[in-house]
Please model this.
Amino acid sequence: MGAETSDRAGAPTGAVFLSYASQDLDAAQRIAAALRAAGIEVWFDQSALRGGDAWDQAIRRQIKTCALFIPVISRNTHERAEGYFRLEWKLAVDRSHLIVANKAFLLPVVIDDTGNDDEYVPETFKECIGRVCRLERRPQRSCGDAGGYQYAEIYAQWGENKVALDWLEKAMHLHDSGMSNLRVDALLDPLRQEPRFQAIDRALKFPQ
Model:
C-alpha cells in the first residue's frame, strides 16, 4: 500500500517502504510500530482511500527513493489475484535490478505459514529467502525487540554499526532464529571486522 496520507508524501529519503495487502493491516501496523520503536522511519499507508494521479505518483516516488522495501507476504497476498500491492512489488523489483548485488534493498517479511515457494511471490523476493523474516512467529517480549536481527541488518546497511551491534546482541539474548544466518548474511558484512561482532560470533559457537 502507499503512503500515510498525512505525512508520507513529504517523508524523507531513506525510509523503509512497507507494502502489504489491505487484509493484513493489523500485522503491518505491528511491524511498522516495531520498526519505529527501533528508530527507523517507515512509509506506511493506513488509508483505504487510494487512487488518482497524485497518489500514484507519490507511491512511485517513495519506492524510487526508499532505503529498503519490505513486502509483507501472507495467505492474503497469495489469494488476491489483483491488488495495488502487486504494482508496488513490481516497481520495487524493477528498481532492485538497478542496485548493486551486495546492497540490501528487498527484505520480505512472511507473517504466517505461507510457503517460501509461493508461485505468486516474485522470484527476486525468493532470492532473498535467507533474509526472510517471520515476525509473527517470534516471541513478543516487547514490540521493539520482536525483529532484532532484522533491525541489525537494516542499521548495518545504513552504516550505523554501533546501533546494529546493539540489536544483534539483543537478538542473540532473545535466541532470535535469524542468528543462524550470522556467518552467511551479506547484509551484516559491514560489521564483520568489529570486535563486538566477532565476540557474538564466538558466543554462538558455530561448528568449525
Notes: The chain has eight helices and four strands. The first helix runs from residue 25 to 37. Residues 2-12, 134-146 have pLDDT under 50 and may be disordered. Residues 68 and 77 are 20 Å apart (CA to CA).
